[in-house]
């Protein structure tokens, strides 16, 4: 089966189970339709595109979009109940929140809460990356400010935001300013670029934007982790040659202005369009980095899972996971166990399954897949969170937002 059929398969999946393409105005990959949100009290069970993190005291913080607002709420009982949601953004225009592009949240050791999101601009597929923080434990947020330091009407979105152990707050995002410059010079540039910045004073100030990579896929989320020196490692979908959309992996050099990277794996997936399928990344011990990513090989959708050394060279794997449409992986590590979760369809039952696989030897071998939960209808991407030696899966379905504890005992095989 050639490239056109592969793209058709990807498009059919996106209309059915969760991707979105540039030809579509609204997202269909969230458990709630935007029309059903208007006028309801903001809460993470009704809102869309939730992202979450634990603070050092074990409180669960969730940021989500609802009815055009970016809201933050917290839970002291592992998601059984939530406090009042606090709005982050002002009435300064619509936001972009769907699928791979969603608000992000981080909380540092001092209890400062950081949020980033993309505010739409009038031109299609354009927006500014906005940042806000709370210095009073999430009771209020500062007026959002623009993080991209250009004024081009283009895309600044699909951001990833993370704190390292030193408390430095890093952000990276897909940026279209190089396409704008290319047009001014009479050149055509299809790909996006990765730009980034860092704050070393709790979000009070940020370094100038740095261009770390040019030539990336336009609409697949980024993944970030930190090496033993607390420098960011990034993984993303890159455009190689004639629309071959494989992944790149790299790490920042000491001053943070340059990213040294290489091709992660020769998947050879040629597709004229963005699959809206970003990778997952997990930094582990012994300078090893676990990664999971979606690809298409021989017209078969697959997840690949591998372990990379500090130079970005594949060390173990990749493990190949097949199914009807295995997708949206995430990774976490607790003790000596590496946990992978992902989604796949149970077509005969009309369900989507949340699956897990565990490795107890650093990713060299993996146990058989086990079903964590099943759901009918539209579902969101799963995310893994860790706290106090435990791992949880955050998953939103049409029934609401669940924080699912994943025990470390051997699970039953999937069926």
From TrEMBL:
Q: Which SUPFAM superfamilies match?
A: Sialidases
Region feature (Disordered) = 28-50
- What transmembrane ranges does the database entry give? none
- Specify the signal sequence span: 1-23
Keywords from UniProt, A to Z, are: Signal
Q: Which domain of life is it from?
A: Bacteria
Note the CDD domains from the entry: Sialidase_non-viral
Annotated InterPro entries: Sialidase_sf
Q: Where is the composition biased (Polar residues)?
A: 38-50
Query: Any keyword Transcription regulation?
Result: no
Q: What is this protein called?
A: Exo-alpha-sialidase
Which organism's genome codes for this protein?
Sulfidibacter corallicola
Q: Which lineage do the record's taxonomy fields give for this organism?
A: Bacteria, Pseudomonadati, Acidobacteriota, Holophagae, Acanthopleuribacterales
């Amino acid at each position: 089966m050639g490239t056109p059929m592969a793209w058709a398969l990807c498009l059919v999946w996106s209309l059915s189970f969760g991707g979105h393409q540039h030809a579509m105005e609204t997202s269909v990959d969230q458990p709630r339709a935007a029309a059903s949100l208007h006028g309801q009290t903001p809460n993470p069970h009704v809102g869309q595109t939730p992202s979450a993190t634990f603070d050092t005291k074990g409180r669960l913080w969730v940021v989500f979009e609802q009815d055009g607002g970016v809201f933050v709420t917290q839970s002291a009982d592992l998601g059984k109940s939530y406090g009042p949601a606090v709005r982050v953004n002002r009435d300064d225009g619509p936001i972009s929140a769907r699928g791979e592009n969603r608000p992000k949240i981080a909380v540092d050791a001092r209890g400062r809460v950081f949020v980033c999101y993309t505010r739409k601009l009038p031109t299609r597929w354009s927006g500014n990356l906005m940042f806000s923080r709370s210095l009073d434990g999430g009771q209020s947020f500062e007026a959002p400010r623009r993080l991209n330091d250009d004024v081009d009407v283009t895309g600044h979105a699909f951001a990833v935001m993370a704190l390292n152990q030193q408390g430095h707050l890093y952000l990276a995002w897909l940026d279209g300013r190089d396409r704008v410059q290319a047009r001014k010079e009479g050149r055509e540039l299809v790909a996006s670029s990765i730009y980034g910045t860092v704050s070393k004073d709790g979000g009070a100030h940020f370094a100038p934007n740095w261009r770390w990579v040019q030539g990336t896929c336009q609409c697949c989320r980024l993944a970030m982790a930190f090496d033993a020196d607390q420098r960011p490692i990034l993984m993303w979908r890159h455009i190689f040659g004639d629309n071959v959309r494989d992944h790149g992996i790299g790490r920042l050099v000491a001053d943070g202005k340059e990213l040294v990277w290489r091709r992660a794996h020769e998947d050879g997936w040629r597709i004229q369009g963005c699959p809206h399928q970003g990778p997952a990344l997990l930094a582990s011990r012994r300078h090893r980095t676990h990664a999971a990513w979606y690809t298409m090989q021989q017209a078969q959708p697959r997840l690949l899972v591998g372990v990379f050394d500090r130079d970005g060279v594949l060390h173990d794997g990749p493990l190949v996971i097949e199914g009807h449409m295995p997708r949206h992986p995430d990774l976490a590590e607790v003790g000596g166990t590496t946990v992978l979760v992902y989604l796949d369809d149970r077509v005969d039952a009309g369900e989507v399954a949340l699956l897990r696989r565990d490795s107890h030897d650093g990713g060299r071998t993996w146990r058989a897949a086990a079903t964590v939960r099943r759901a009918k209808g539209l579902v969101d991407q799963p995310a893994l969170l860790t706290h106090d030696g435990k791992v949880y899966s955050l998953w939103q379905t049409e029934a609401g937002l669940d924080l699912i504890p994943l025990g470390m005992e051997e699970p039953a095989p999937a069926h």
